[in-house]
């Protein structure tokens, strides 16, 4: 049973959604404003937050930034905003998934289960630690070290690196990364993959022009390799 926090101001959406998610076995709390939702997220520490963007006191994207500053709780944005640029901005701001209204409770429940499977306590906890050169990736603790020094990654950066680590030496396409890491269809939003790869490279002390571990194969995707192998 997952503990969910639904931050949604529309009572006609909030009430039936809470009821339907509870019927599917989740423990659901609800908030109708951004600041109440932020307080509840910090006090009650839910397993996942479902966040509407059109809140009365604060835009949901700003609330997402505030949450990400203090918490790694998974967040699914559920909103009527379907502009592709908005979707990319929200995902880049730290959302784990994006669902456009109208949607059914069954669709939301499927997204919740998919996001939670990728987080601590999901199947990844059974994965062995991956060592690639001086890079060490531990799915159980969600910790990464490089040459013995810890590397601080955001939840999304870790998920991206972890997925690449399951395919060491192979070229992984952006289509696969968007599908498996972001759980969204391939399209113009592949820009978000480039942005996160850039951030990840910076934290690994490399760049696209001078790669060590993350090597771009132009027009295809990216592969994770040991510097010794790449050299």
UniProtKB/TrEMBL annotation:
<feature type="DNA-binding region" description="OmpR/PhoB-type">
    <location>
        <begin position="127"/>
        <end position="226"/>
    </location>
</feature>
<dbReference type="Pfam" id="PF00486">
    <property type="entry name" value="Trans_reg_C"/>
</dbReference>
<feature type="modified residue" description="4-aspartylphosphate">
    <location>
        <position position="52"/>
    </location>
</feature>
<feature type="domain" description="OmpR/PhoB-type">
    <location>
        <begin position="127"/>
        <end position="226"/>
    </location>
</feature>
<dbReference type="Pfam" id="PF00072">
    <property type="entry name" value="Response_reg"/>
</dbReference>
<feature type="domain" description="Response regulatory">
    <location>
        <begin position="3"/>
        <end position="116"/>
    </location>
</feature>
<dbReference type="GO" id="GO:0000156">
    <property type="term" value="F:phosphorelay response regulator activity"/>
</dbReference>
<dbReference type="InterPro" id="IPR011006">
    <property type="entry name" value="CheY-like_superfamily"/>
</dbReference>
<protein>
    <submittedName>
        <fullName>DNA-binding response regulator, OmpR family, contains REC and winged-helix (WHTH) domain</fullName>
    </submittedName>
</protein>
<dbReference type="InterPro" id="IPR001789">
    <property type="entry name" value="Sig_transdc_resp-reg_receiver"/>
</dbReference>
<keyword id="KW-0597">Phosphoprotein</keyword>
<dbReference type="GO" id="GO:0032993">
    <property type="term" value="C:protein-DNA complex"/>
</dbReference>
<dbReference type="GO" id="GO:0000976">
    <property type="term" value="F:transcription cis-regulatory region binding"/>
</dbReference>
<keyword id="KW-0902">Two-component regulatory system</keyword>
<dbReference type="GO" id="GO:0006355">
    <property type="term" value="P:regulation of DNA-templated transcription"/>
</dbReference>
<dbReference type="InterPro" id="IPR039420">
    <property type="entry name" value="WalR-like"/>
</dbReference>
<dbReference type="InterPro" id="IPR001867">
    <property type="entry name" value="OmpR/PhoB-type_DNA-bd"/>
</dbReference>
<dbReference type="GO" id="GO:0005829">
    <property type="term" value="C:cytosol"/>
</dbReference>
<keyword id="KW-0804">Transcription</keyword>
<keyword id="KW-0238">DNA-binding</keyword>
<keyword id="KW-0805">Transcription regulation</keyword>
<dbReference type="InterPro" id="IPR036388">
    <property type="entry name" value="WH-like_DNA-bd_sf"/>
</dbReference>
């Amino acid at each position: 049973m997952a503990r969910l926090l639904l931050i949604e101001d529309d009572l006609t959406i909030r009430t039936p959604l809470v009821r339907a998610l509870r019927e599917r076995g989740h423990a659901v709390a609800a908030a109708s404003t951004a600041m109440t939702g932020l307080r509840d997220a910090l006090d009650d520490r839910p397993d996942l937050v479902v966040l509407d963007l059109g809140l009365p006191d604060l835009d949901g994207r700003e609330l997402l930034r505030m949450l990400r500053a203090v918490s790694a709780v998974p967040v699914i944005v559920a909103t009527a905003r379907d502009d592709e640029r908005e979707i990319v901005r929200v995902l880049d701001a730290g959302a784990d998934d994006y669902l456009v209204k109208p949607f059914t409770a069954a669709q939301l429940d499927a997204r919740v289960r998919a996001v939670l499977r990728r987080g601590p306590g999901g199947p990844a906890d059974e994965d062995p630690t991956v060592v690639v050169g001086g890079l060490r990736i531990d799915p159980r603790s969600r910790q990464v070290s490089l040459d013995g020094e810890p590397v601080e990654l955001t939840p999304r950066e870790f998920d991206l690196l972890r997925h690449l680590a399951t395919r060491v030496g192979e070229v992984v396409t952006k289509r696969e990364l968007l599908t498996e890491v972001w759980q969204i269809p391939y399209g113009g939003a592949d820009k978000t993959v480039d942005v996160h790869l850039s951030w990840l490279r910076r934290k690994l002390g490399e760049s696209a022009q001078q790669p060590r571990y993350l090597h771009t194969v132009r027009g295809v995707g990216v592969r994770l390799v040991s510097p010794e192998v790449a050299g």
